Amino acid sequence: MSRILMVYASMTGNTQEVAEAIAEGIRSTGKDLEIKEVIDATAKELEDYDAILLGAYTWGDGELPDECLDFYEEMDDIDLSGKKVAAFGSCDSAYEHVGAAVDILLKKASERGAETPLEGLKIELSPNEKEVEICKQFGVSFSELLG
Question: pTM higher than 0.90 for the full model?
Answer without folding.
Answer: yes
